Amino acid sequence: MQLQSAFQSVVSNDMIFNGFKFSPKVLHFNCIYDGGVSNQSVPIVLAISTEDKEKLDGCLAITLLHNNKPVAILRAPEFFEHRKEERCARQFGTTHPSHPYIQMIFASGDWLVGGELEVLNRIRWNDGLDEYRFTPTELKKTFHDMGADAVFAFQLRNPVHNGHALLMQFTRQTLLERGYKKPVLLLHPLGGWTKDDDVPLAVRMEQHKAILEERVLDPEHTILAIFPSPMLYAGPTEVQWHARSRLMAGAKFYIVGRDPAGMAHPNPALKQDLYEPTHGGKVLSMAPGLVGMEIIPFRVAAYDTRAKCMSFFDPERKQDFEFISGTRMRGLARAGESPPPGFMAEKAWDVLALYYRALNSD
């Protein structure tokens, strides 16, 4: 029997197909790996409707299709009740109906299907960005060919400003001072689904390339690649998945940001973050499954009005620092104005400004 995968299922399972979940031949939901149960902070599941379950019940194998093309075979399938409320409560710590990913979970099928997954073909999105989609094995080979003796990863779903770059530059310098000869940065923007108000992947990639072209980040010591996961906005639970995936790709150092995988509370009346901003970093420091990875804590950067650049925040002279919010940044771009000098590389800002002005014209 055949099963046409929905877009969101394909985006999620692209993590498996590209090797970020174990190997090209793995067990899916209800997974056993190396003879034991593998605990994952974020479940990757395939939800199906009751109608599809009834059609597939008793099948020995299911061919998974994307755009009517076979991408994988699921053998010895098993079906499980999709306990949506329990899944959301455990994964997100909330079941709020306005959370964007929770909305998709509750709109998905009432059953989950799992089994032994055999990948047939690598998914090509044909969006002009496939050259930036690497498997963990390919990334490891690239790092080896570069002569990297340390790899540090930076996860992001937003455009890079000079505060982000400062943290990455500082991390590389710290590794050099610790005796590493060639630390390499894995600049690994999230490439799956994101909220409608997030900057699209294609725009972010152009912005990141501009950062490298202007040498805000050294292109000779940086690999720009797409991390194929969707954004779940699951906070401290999700950030464990982000770090673990980079460990599988060869990174031994992971820069954790403020409020990683977070978002504003879905109840706007509360006017607060959904997750406590420091909990993601704290959870990573004690999370199981990250043996061999060192977590680099986030340092707050802000615009230094005295130095006219982004600097690490100094509470002793807090009057000299200005925090430029994403809301203000978007407002400047839409109005055709520029941020203060030193906030973002000029070419990188031009990419964002063009995108936001196009939104205004629409």
From TrEMBL:
Domain Sulphate adenylyltransferase catalytic span(s) in chain numbering: 131-353
InterPro entries: ATP-Sase_PUA-like_dom, PUA-like_sf, Rossmann-like_a/b/a_fold, Sulfurylase_cat_dom, Sulphate_adenylyltransferase
Superkingdom: Eukaryota
Keywords tagged on the record: ATP-binding, Nucleotide-binding, Nucleotidyltransferase, Transferase
Presence of the UniProt keyword Transmembrane in the record: no
Example GO molecular function: sulfate adenylyltransferase (ATP) activity
Similarity comment: family membership: In the N-terminal section; belongs to the APS kinase family.
Protein name: Sulfate adenylyltransferase
Organism phylogeny: Eukaryota, Metazoa, Ecdysozoa, Arthropoda, Crustacea
